[in-house]
Amino acid sequence: MKKIYLVFLLVVSQAFAQSEDEKQIRQIYDVALTDGQAYLWLNYLSNQIGGRLSGSVQAQQAVDYTKTQMDSLGLDRVWLQPVMVPKWVRGTPEFAYIETDPGVTTNVPICALGGSIPTYGRGVKANVIEVQSIEELKTLGKEKISGKIVFFNRPMDPALVNTFEAYSGAGDQRRSGAAEAGKYEALGVIVRSLNLRQDDYPHAGGMNYGDIPEAEKIPAAAISTNGADLLSATLKLNPNTQFFFKLNCKTLEDVESYNVIGEIKGSTHPDEIMVVGGHLDSWDLGDGSHDDGAGCVQSMEVLRILKKIGYKPKRTIRAVLFMNEENGLRGGRKYAEVAESTNENHVFALESDSGGFTPRGFSFDASDENIARAQSWESLFEPYYIHTFMKGFSGADISPLKNNTIVLAGLRPDSQRYFDHHHAENDTFEHVNRRELELGAAAMASLVYLFDTYGVVGSN
Ligand SMILES: [Zn+2]
User: Fold this and answer.
1) pLDDT band per the 50, 70, 90 thresholds, residue 3
2) Cα(264) to centroid of ligand 1, in Å?
């Protein structure tokens, strides 16, 4: 009899607890959708400041702006965390053409890849060898590659529904194509833009030379998908086609920049820190609205919403706007380094760096127990059409915080349009939908609320 009564009590208390959670989450969504601030912040970041390449004036303006905005939220503490960042500059616009016969040329859109050396002198002009992979270089050997421009043309796989998988499947060409082709005495590399759509935008992105000797470094540029198809078709008709490109980029000395951090102190477990973040730097061709202005303003919005609904977190909740994700990850590394040296106990970190599109769910890099805990909340998110709670990647900036107990999570928005804009000139404010952005902020605040309320398994 007693046992039945206890079970009854448990069921009632769970039902009550759930309705309390339902209420809180409803309130979070109400604030995000009827009184949201994220979109207004993004408007300023994108349209008044613009692209925020590490070490640029715009990156510094973004630091100042977001710091001032966080100062105005009445948080317990807002500060700048200094970090040295690389400073790579694009210089005057790049230029390229395909030359089928002497003097018969067609211009194609390219952009230098971040970290590339310039084309010294008047530019590079040479025959082209098209390849589908880095492995193919080995098969061809120095004999066939030396003195040519290597054209990496493997597209993102359109059969993959998760476009991030398609992106990682093709990304090695951009990241290390130049370092690899340089070993075979190529004069430069042209890489098909990581974009699933046919268009005329070249997509920037980071590349690095690893530890190859200075003499083997060759310039690297991305070509638009239309440009890549034209070059490929032209080469089939005329293998003697030449390609010309000129890049004016260079790497300057490292400069000091900052992570921007705001926090609400925890009421009962202030030593347990929960992070929500995005990266404040961006590529320079567009204004970085999706990548990752969206994630920054959503993270700030999480703190603002929690204050607005009068929620007093048990744990310390921080919004961290990381500097230099795109071409160095220095901000993410610095944050983790400082956390470790000051013995801070980070129990949870959530990153939004997949665009400001309609949120579909979260991926978790965490223990099975914590993933199960998150999955037990799925029904709370159902009314908001958030269905995906899966094991997977969290985010680059928070990845240096990884340890055995921390819950790392990533907001997973719909990914179908992301690579239309990613790192390109058309990553701009008008391509962000206000409600989609706000729904993402609300989903993030809800997950933070739940992990704060119920804790992280294994954290104490
Ligand atoms: Zn990003």
Assistant:
1) low
2) 25
C-alpha 180 to ligand 1 mean position (Å) = 25
Q: How far is the CA of 351 from the centre of ligand 1 (A)?
A: 10
Give the separation between CA 321 and CA 398, rounded to whole angstroms: 11
pTM above 0.85, yes or no: yes
Q: Report the sign of the C-alpha dihedral through residues 61, 64, 70, 74, in that order.
A: negative
pLDDT digits (tens, 9 = 90+) for 343-393: 999 999 999 999 999 999 999 999 999 999 999 999 999 999 999 999 999
pLDDT tens track for 33-56: 999 999 999 999 999 999 999 999
Cβ(194)–Cβ(170) under 8 Å?
A: yes
Number of neighbours of residue 88 by Cβ within 10 angstroms: 24
Q: 172 C-alpha to center of ligand 1: Å?
A: 17
Distance (Å, rounded) from C-alpha 119 to C-alpha 188? 8
> 106 is written with which tokens?
């067609």
Could you say which DSSP state residue 404 is in?
A: S
Residue 310 Cα, ligand 1 centroid: separation in angstroms? Answer: 31
- 354 C-alpha to ligand 1 centroid (Å): 7
Q: What distance in angstroms lies between residue 414's CA and the mean position of ligand 1's atoms?
A: 15
3-class DSSP state of 329: coil
Which residues are within 8 A (CB) of 336 and not within 5 positions of it... i.e. 6 or more apart? Answer: 400, 401
Report, as an integer, the average pLDDT of 255-279: 98
Angle 50-60-348 from CA coordinates, rounded to 5°: 95
Strands 220-223 and 110-112: antiparallel
Sign of CA dihedral 163, 203, 139, 168: negative
Separation of 324 CA from ligand 1 center, angstroms?
10
- Residue 49 alpha carbon to ligand 1 centre in Å: 17
The structure tokens listed for 409 are 């999570």
Tell me the CA–centroid distance for residue 51 and ligand 1, in Å: 12
DSSP string, 117-147: PP--TT-EEEEEEEES-SHHHHHHHHHHHTT
